[in-house]
Structure formats: C-alpha cells, structure tokens
Amino acid sequence: MSNLASVLNGASFNGLAKVDEAGLFGMITLRGDLGSAKVAAAVKGATGQDVPGVRQINGDLAGGVAWMSTDELLVLVPYADVTAKLADMLTALEGEHALAVNVSDARAVFRVSGASAREVMGKIAPVDFSAAAFGPGDFRRSRLAQVAGAFWLDSEDSFAIVCFRSTGDYVFNLLSAAANPKSAVGVY
C-alpha cells in the first residue's frame, strides 16, 4: 500500500493571513437532478446535510455538501470514509439517472484564515468578498488567478479553498504572495 500524502505535506505561510495546505479530504462529485428525492437521500446519508441552495454549502470539510452547478454537488466526507460513503451513495441512487465519483486524490485543499483573509482572497478571485456580499456558508466556483477553484467561508475570517491537485503548488504560492505583509491593500 502506498503512503498517503497531501499535495504539499502541510505547507504553511504566515503573513497578512495564515495560508495552510489542509491535508487530505474525501470528495465525491455528484451529478444528477438536485431536486430528486434519491439525490437528497444519498447526500443526507453521506453527510447528514440537506442539498444546499444555489452558491451555498451546508456543513464543512468533515461532512458537507456544496452547490457546484445546476446539476452538480461536491460531497465532502472524511478521507478515510470516502470509499464506503461512495458505495452507500451509489446504493441510494440505484435506478436514478445520476453519477457519483470519488475525486479526492485529484484535489488539493487549502485554508486562508485571519483578519485579512478576505483581502487575500480578493486579490486572486473575481468575487466581492465584503461581509455584506459574502458570508459564512456562501460558496463560489470561480478562478484563482489563472486556474479553476472553489471556495467558501467557514467563519467570518476563515476560507476553505479546493483546486485541482495538479495546480496545488501554484495555488499555495499564489495565496502566499497575496498574503505577503508588504502587499496590504486594506479594501476589506
């Protein structure tokens, strides 16, 4: 058996905000009719959460579900449980026109936290990160400078960021540069 390793083995940077590579998390892409009772039951069984509204996340990295598009959810579970959770979801979805796939090893997860977390994120993503426009539970699938990513606010000053594993090093360096103490802008 291979040794499990996250993309950057827990790399961290302290500056305007703290940037951490968050480790391994279980992630399942679920495509289907988000209004379906079977989809709702599969999500609830895997995470204990309801299907979220548009651009929302219910729960967290240890057990949550995020809206990715009109027919796609990102289901978040502990890494050690992803295989069993996926099997349970597939059973719950039997007979439903849906697709559920384990994408855990194709993704990297980061956290940006601290009083200037909104400012750091505002430098790299085309989103209004003001407290009035983006609050806890809000979720976006967007750009992180030159690469695709998704992010949400766990609390008033803590973001979770998901990107492709292949761009993990780029995203960590991007977040770290945006958190450089000499780059303070003071917008948020």
TrEMBL record:
It comes from the Bacteria. This is Sarcosine oxidase subunit gamma family protein. It comes from Aliisedimentitalea scapharcae. The lineage of its organism: Bacteria, Pseudomonadati, Pseudomonadota, Alphaproteobacteria, Rhodobacterales.
